[in-house]
Structures are given as structure tokens and as C-alpha cells.
Amino acid sequence: MESRDLLLSxxxxxxxxxxxxxxxxxxxxxxxxxxxxxxTSLCAEVQGAGGSETATLYGRGIRDLDGFCYQLCRxxxxxxxxxxxxxxxxxxxxxxxxxxEGRVVFWHDAHVLMEADPVLFADLVDSMNLVSAEFEAATPxxxxxxxxxxxxxxxxxxxxxxGRFSVWRYPQTGPEFMEAPNTLFVNILKPST
Length: 193
Known about the structure:
By secondary structure, the protein is α/β, with parallel strands linked by helices.
């Protein structure tokens, strides 16, 4: 997985938006407040650019599949309870009720589930990135786009294994799938004062 440092100074929200237009993001910092500032500012930048809807998942309330599904079907235009499996997660993410140009899912404190259930976390990340890859392959001009922003604000100990998320957990087939998920690891740096 490619990685990049991003300094929170200057016109960094626009630079972050450009990164997001190209990749799903795994975002971490040794300073939890830097991750929160990054996420809320990037969400505002996405909304201000227009055309895309945002959905926010609050990771401290996601400790199992039920908690994830509960939040997902309330964060997106869905309308009823969803199944409690990764196939249902994929179905919900594929559903574009309003057909926006794009959708960005922000998963705050993703490290909570990663630490509680690493296998489930990896399955959910793969499911989310799978739908992102499908939309990217189906719309080469990127008229409809799903991007995922996984936010890790637990400090150094909560950083995900970048190598693990640079490959598909379960091999994907078909010409529409890239060799690896389209992800970028972003390390947030605060300017020195």
C-alpha cells in the first residue's frame, strides 16, 4: 500500500480531497485530535464540493457485526434493517437511492473493531473496498464513486498493518478487479508550533 505524510497546514483540505478522489484512505496519526480535525475538515470539504453524500460511522459503537450494520443502515439512505453479514453490507453500499455523483463513508475510530475482532474488521474493510472497486471499474469516467476513509485515532498502537490491506483478503475474480484494493495510507502530521 502506498503511503504519504500529510501536514495539516496551508490548503491541506483540498490536497486531502484530491487524494480521496484517487483512493480509499487509511488515516492515522500519533495525535488523536489530528485525526479528528482531518476527518471533520475533509467531510466538510466533500460536502462543500457538492455532488457527493457522506456517511459517518462512529467506531466506538462498533464492536461487532451488529454494531457496524446498525450504524451503516442509519448512515445511508436505506430505510429498513439489513442482514447481519458481509453480503448485506455489500448490498447496502451498492444501493444508491438518490444516485449522487459519489459517496464517502467515514469510519471514525476504526481501530476499536480492528483490536476487538481483527478478522471481522478485515472482512468489512474488504467488503467496503470491493464495492469501491466495482464502482470504479463500472464507471471509468468516475461519475459514480464510493470512497472509504478509515480513521485510526488510537495512537501508534492502533495503526493498521499496511501490508495486510494492500491485498484482497479473498481473491477477487474478473477483469474489473485490480490486483490490489485502491488504498492509500495517510499519516497526519501537525505543524510544529
